What we know:
By secondary structure, the protein is mainly alpha-helical. It has a domain at 5-62. The protein has helices spanning 5-26, 30-35, 41-62, 75-81. Helix 1 (5-26) packs antiparallel against helix 3. The longest helix has 22 residues, at 5-26.
Amino acid sequence: MLFDIRTIVGALLGLYAVVLVITGLVHDTAAEEAKTGGINVNIWAGLGMGAVSVAFFAWVLLRPVVPAEPPARSDDEKRESGDSSGL
């Protein structure tokens, strides 16, 4: 689960979301709000990224990667390799 790409993407989006929300709360000037029409874009972008991050982590938990099982060895292959556990 740790090396699943969905975990890495979710963590990066979550980190950027936290940075954007903190930036929106701390560094919100009137000049910046005038550029965006009175909307605090950093907070909204941070909340959106946070929602996508939660969706990625939910995806990882609900649909984990299941490794494929190796194919079963036939009796002939067991005899050739000297494995007598199947007899």
